[in-house]
Amino acid sequence: MSTTTLIWIVVLVAALLAVALVAGVALSRRRRISLTEKEPDRPVTKGYRAGGGITFAQPGGPATKPAEPEPAAKPAAAKPAEEPPAKRAEAAAPVVDEPVGEDAPVETPAPVDISVPVDTAAPVEPVVPVEAPEPVRHPVADRTEVDGQPGVGDDASVPRDSVRPGLVDVQLPEESSEIDEIEPTAGRLERLRGRLSRSRSTLGSGLLGLLGAGDLDEDSWTDVEDTLLMADLGAAVTMQVVEALRQQIAARGVRTPEQARTLLREVLVDALHPSMDRSLHALPHDGKPAVLLVVGVNGVGKTTTTGKLARVLIADGRTVLLGAADTFRAAAADQLATWGSRVGARTVRGPEGGDPASVAFDAVKQGVGEGVDTVLVDTAGRLHTKTGLMDELGKVKRVVEKQTKVDEVLLVLDATTGQNGLTQARVFSEVVDVTGIVLTKLDGTAKGGIVFQVQRELGVPVKLVGLGEGADDLAPFEPAAFVDALLGQG
Ligand SMILES: Nc1nc2c(ncn2[C@@H]2O[C@H](COP(=O)(O)OP(=O)(O)OP(=O)(O)O)[C@@H](O)[C@H]2O)c(=O)[nH]1
């Protein structure tokens, strides 16, 4: 073999090795989804695509996940106990649903650790004396939609004491003797692509058709306004967006559809306040679990969201305790307990019709005593127009706060309810100081523009979106990805 041939062979092998290395690095980057760092925005070709995982944070701390879960802190010294009223004693003794198969050895695939370590030897904090919550027997008059309040979602106008969908109807997976294998975040985000496809036809094609046509007359601008209003952006945001578009089109001399698309994307992303902190304050701090309350009107997806969120946290190596403070609908506690049993989280529940504040209190007390990372409290659906029910919700939060801080109050809004979501957000915010919005059912609507309004008016960020009924159909809200999906980028 000549020297030249040998040199050629060496060069060829080196080139092949280099190509393989570059391909390997590219593949591994595509697969990796970090729960702590957001990937930079990237153009998408179709539908909603969240570029990163859900970011968890401690209050006031950086929006990142510590390398190791914090150990449970020693319980604080107990205050002298007060005599608890008899009624509270009756309602106490919460039932705890253990995850199915918790005692059995469970083989879980790395890297997801779904075990729920419970240190039974650790001292359990004595009951912190609190002003005992008044037992609430939900008055039927309060619980029933009687005054024809319009449009709080379809479910909201159904009387609360009517037959509600049970476990069978909500299509939960069958009870299993084994804990679920939880999809890694990367897989789920891939699967969520394209879920907003219906939204695209309305906003994307409509606006781009108008703006890309060149010089716009007043009639065309009116059409732009109408399109934005129909997508639920509301009057104020519509005016803001139209104003920005008019200015920029004149300033930049937008002439081509491509320039129009770039400008529209920029203006819409800007209207979504991309700099808002969207991390979820779900990490333990000061030796106590993070406590999250999930609130909203009937049927918006609170229980489903709580279950999905528990899955994400547990997949992230966290220990989670669920509080079934929806004591009105018996099936709701079962529904939550089913979620818990499948992901490896226990559920604290109370008697049907009991005081939701009492259940929330018990769940948090137990979470503190056991040193879990996060307590997720699912509350009953309530119409924001019913002051009695809203007062009850305020009480749930106050009672929990006698033990520890409530780190997040997540208001779940159904994207298909449109404009009414803003009214709900306003009222709930007044009562419980909402810290984040979860927008569900984005897979089933051609709208979703309520995101713009809620954030603008309340300054509360949309943190999560629900894109389906599946257990892993929960994604972080990312303004650029959302706008790309609305515009049908690509
Ligand atoms: N398509 C779709 N359906 C969803 C989503 N989130 C929840 N759902 C469905 O909405 C229905 C109501 O969900 P729940 O979680 O029971 O709602 P809830 O707010 O807890 O209901 P109440 O306790 O009665 O107030 C169920 O059928 C869920 O599967 C979503 O993101 N997309």
UniProtKB/TrEMBL annotation:
One of its GO terms (cellular component) is cytoplasm. GTP binds at residues 296-303, 378-382, 440-443. It is found in: Cell membrane; Cytoplasm. Keywords: Cell membrane, Cytoplasm, GTP-binding, Hydrolase, Membrane, Nucleotide-binding, Receptor, Transmembrane, Transmembrane helix. The keyword Hydrolase applies. The keyword Isomerase does not apply. Residues 80-90 have a biased composition (Basic and acidic residues). One of its GO terms (biological process) is SRP-dependent cotranslational protein targeting to membrane. Its main location: membrane. Residues 38-112, 141-166 are annotated as: Disordered. It is an enzyme of class 3 (hydrolase). Its EC number is 3.6.5.4. Coiled coil: none annotated. SMART domains: AAA, SRP54, SRP54_N. It comes from the Bacteria. It is a peripheral membrane protein. Involved in targeting and insertion of nascent membrane proteins into the cytoplasmic membrane. Acts as a receptor for the complex formed by the signal recognition particle (SRP) and the ribosome-nascent chain (RNC). Part of the signal recognition particle protein translocation system, which is composed of SRP and FtsY. Belongs to the GTP-binding SRP family. FtsY subfamily. HAMAP family: FtsY. PANTHER family: SIGNAL RECOGNITION PARTICLE RECEPTOR SUBUNIT ALPHA. This is Signal recognition particle receptor FtsY. The gene is ftsY.
